[in-house]
């Protein structure tokens, strides 16, 4: 029996924070859960010295932004698939528009605009306070890998 | 590859906090450069499988691309300690699950341009013929870094 929209949302709000906190690499980088909706997810990455890619300018490494976008896209995929499933990244394509401002937290906003039975298609962008001035945009595909186990619902 | 470059690369990586966070180390054997990411619990994305985080693999490949650009550019007389190359657009294919073991990345500069360079990277674990991920992308290599 399929869940109502309200039941799905309730489940997603349970799963979302758990998924971010329960991902060791996300926790290591300091990622935070912000919000979730059907097919949508928003995560944050607070500025941290451990993520600096350029010791002179103190700008965060592109890889840290890649991780945040991957995590946000993965959560949007989970929120986009009709059936509960684990996911795996198939492809992640990122354009970097500008350097993240040193000292500022980064937000990643992801939208799963189409999910078939096996594949979810996601667009995302990252900004550091002004959502009209993105620092990176992403396009990703995720595969449904089957029934969830543990926190990776 | 000169030993100087290998040493400079090691010094550069030791000063990049993100490289330390991932735990990556360069390995230079003869003319071949390999970036190594030893296994760490902190790089896990899915603890149930378990599997390495796609972002950790992505960041690892970006670092490999940047290192290879520094090496190639140094070989053509460019100051390796100057402005670091920056990613403009990258595309990553995830081919296999990243198992909880050591990973290796090797990069090739397909086109070295004055302002923009194109790089391809492959990551493997036990078997180089079974890559777990591949990246291709453009990096900004303009001297003014703009």
Compose a concise summary of this entry:
The complex is a heterodimer of chains A (153) and B (146). Chain A has 153 residues and is α+β, with helices and mostly antiparallel strands.
Overall spatial form of chain B: globular
Largest sheet: number of strands, sense, barrel closure of chain B: 6 strands, antiparallel
Strand order of the largest sheet of chain A: 1-2-6-7-8-5
Cα separation of the termini of chain A:
18 Å
Please state the CA-atom Rg of chain A, rounded to the nearest Å: 15 Å
Number of domains of chain B: 1
**Share of helix among residues of chain B?**
25-40%
What order do the helices and strands of chain B follow? HHEEEEHEEEE
Which oligomeric state applies? heterodimer
CATH class label of chain B: Alpha Beta
Taking the alpha carbons of the first and last residues of chain B, their distance comes to: 29 Å
Average pLDDT across residues of chain A?
93
Order of helices and strands of chain A: HHEEEEHEEEE
Q: Indicate the percent of residues in helices of chain A.
A: 25-40%
Number of separate structural domains of chain A = 1
Mean pLDDT of chain B: 92
Q: From the 3D structure, determine the CATH topology of chain B.
A: Thiol Ester Dehydrase, Chain A
């Amino acid at each position: 029996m399929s869940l109502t929209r309200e039941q799905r949302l309730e489940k997603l709000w349970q799963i979302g924070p758990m998924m971010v906190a329960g991902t060791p690499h996300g926790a290591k980088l300091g990622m935070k859960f912000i919000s979730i909706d059907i097919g949508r997810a928003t995560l944050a990455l607070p500025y941290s010295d451990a993520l600096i890619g350029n010791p002179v300018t103190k700008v965060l490494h592109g890889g840290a932004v890649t991780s945040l976008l991957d995590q946000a896209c993965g959560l949007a995929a989970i929120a986009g698939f009709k059936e509960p499933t684990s996911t795996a990244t198939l492809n992640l394509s990122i354009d970097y528009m500008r350097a993240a401002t040193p000292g500022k937290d980064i937000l990643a906003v992801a939208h799963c605009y189409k999910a078939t039975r096996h594949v979810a298609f996601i667009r995302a962008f990252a900004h550091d306070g002004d959502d009209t001035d993105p620092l990176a945009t992403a396009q990703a595909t995720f595969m449904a890998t089957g029934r969830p186990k543990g926190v990776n619902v | 590859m000169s030993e100087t470059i290998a040493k400079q690369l090691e010094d550069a990586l030791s000063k990049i906090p993100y490289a330390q966070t991932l735990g990556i180390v360069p390995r230079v054997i003869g003319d071949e450069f390999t970036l190594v990411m030893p296994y760490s619990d902190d790089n896990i994305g899915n603890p149930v499988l378990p599997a390495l985080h796609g972002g950790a693999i992505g960041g690892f490949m970006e670092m490999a691309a940047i290192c290879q650009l520094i090496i190639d550019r140094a070989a053509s007389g460019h100051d390796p300690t100057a402005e670091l190359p920056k990613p403009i657009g990258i595309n990553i294919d995830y081919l296999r699950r990243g198992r909880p073991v050591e990973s290796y990345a090797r990069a090739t500069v397909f086109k070295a341009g004055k302002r923009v360079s194109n790089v391809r990277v492959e990551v493997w674990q036990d078997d180089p013929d079974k890559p777990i991920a591949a990246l291709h992308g453009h990096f900004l290599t303009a001297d003014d870094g703009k």
